[in-house]
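Board notes (copied after class):
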Amino acid sequence: MPLRSDWSSSTCPIAHAADVLADPWVLLILREAFSGRARFDELRAATGAADSVLARRLRSMVDAGLLARVGGAYVVTATGAEALPVLHAYARFTRAVDPEGPWGLTIACARCGTVADAADWCASCSRTLDATTTTWARRSMGGEPFRLHVGAAA
């Protein structure tokens, strides 16, 4: 899934991860899969990707182990769940660059309800935020907090 270069055999862990995750479509597809959108038509509508682009990215994401195909749905795997802090860091960065922007993703600890200040841990209860201990509230999905979807078709 490289954008310009193939870093798949790099010994640098950042370059190797970028080879898989640096494609913006991959991040958007992961966001939607975590949100419970699992079918091709749902992913297409939510991301705005052309059919050919989405099909290629989904195939690459399955090959990379980020998603699994379960029936007609794509679900986040344990490997894909490891990318969650990357998505959280992007959301935090966007709020840092434009704090008054219309950003519609709230990340919170599912254990204590505290809105996250960090990409991978809760400042209130000092525990790790992962796919099982994180809630999102997305303005585009009604604004109600929900648990992330990982490992099974929604």
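Comment from the instructor: The first helix runs from residue 13 to 21. The helical segments are 13-21, 24-34, 40-47, 51-63, 78-81, 84-97.
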